[in-house]
Amino acid sequence: MSGERLEVSVTFDPAKGYVATAAELRQPVTALSLGGLQRNEALMLPDDPIITLSLDRSSRRERDRQRRRLVL
C-alpha cells in the first residue's frame, strides 16, 4: 500500500473527538485533533499510504470552531 491513497471518512463526536472509519482500518480511530487522527491511522497501517480525510458536516464545523478559537 506504500504510496497508495487511502480515503478515510471522519465525523466528530463531542464525547470521543474525531472518529475515522475506512474499510482498510481494523477498527475506528479516534483522536482529539485531525493531525493526531492522521498520525494514529498511519501507525495502524503497515505501509506509508497518502491519507486523505473526508470530513462530514459535524467534523468540518468543529475544525472551523477550533481554528476560530486559535485566531482570537
Rough shape? elongated
Number of distinct beta strands: 4
CATH fold-level topology: TTHA1013/TTHA0281-like
Radius of gyration: 13 Å
CATH class: Alpha Beta
**What is the domain total for the residues?**
1
Distance between the termini: 41 Å
Protein architecture, described:
The chain has a single domain (5-62), classed as 2-Layer Sandwich (TTHA1013/TTHA0281-like). The protein has two helices and four strands. The chain has helices at residues 34-44, 57-71; strands at residues 5-13, 17-21, 29-31, 50-55. It has a four-stranded mixed beta sheet with strand order 3-2-1-4. The longest helix has 15 residues, at 57-71.
Name its key features.
72 residues, alpha+beta, TTHA1013/TTHA0281-like, 4-stranded mixed beta sheet, 2 helices, 32% strand
Blueprint of the fold:
Blueprint (H helix, E strand, L loop, with lengths): L4 E9 L3 E5 L7 E3 L2 H11 L5 E6 L1 H15 L1
Parallel strand pairs: 1-4
Antiparallel strand pairs: 1-2, 2-3
Question: What is the gist of this entry?
Answer:
Helix content is 36%, strand content 32%. The protein contains two helices and four strands; from the N terminus they run βββαβα.
